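Work Package 4 report. The design task specified in the project plan requires that, given a folded chain encoded as structure tokens, an amino acid be chosen for each position. We show below one input record used in the internal validation round.
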């Protein structure tokens, strides 16, 4: 499942990132978003979701959220 279908408030482990865009991969990696890392969906909002990765909270759009497989 991807982050858009993930349950709010539940911690997941990132299984993989499904994207062909190197820039998107680099951006997600800079946030600490890569395979094996825990991630929590704080809330779903119009156009994306708010996630907690490590000690930070980020607002990511639906395209990024759909690329993150948990």
């Amino acid at each position: 499942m991807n982050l858009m279908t993930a349950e709010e408030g539940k911690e997941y482990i990132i299984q993989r990132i499904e994207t062909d865009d190197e820039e998107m991969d680099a951006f997600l990696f800079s946030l600490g978003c890569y395979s094996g890392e825990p991630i929590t969906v704080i809330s779903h909002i119009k156009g994306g979701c708010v996630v907690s990765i490590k000690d930070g909270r980020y607002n990511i759009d639906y395209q990024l959220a759909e690329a993150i497989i948990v």
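The helical segments are 22-31, 62-67. Validation will be extended to a larger panel in the next phase.
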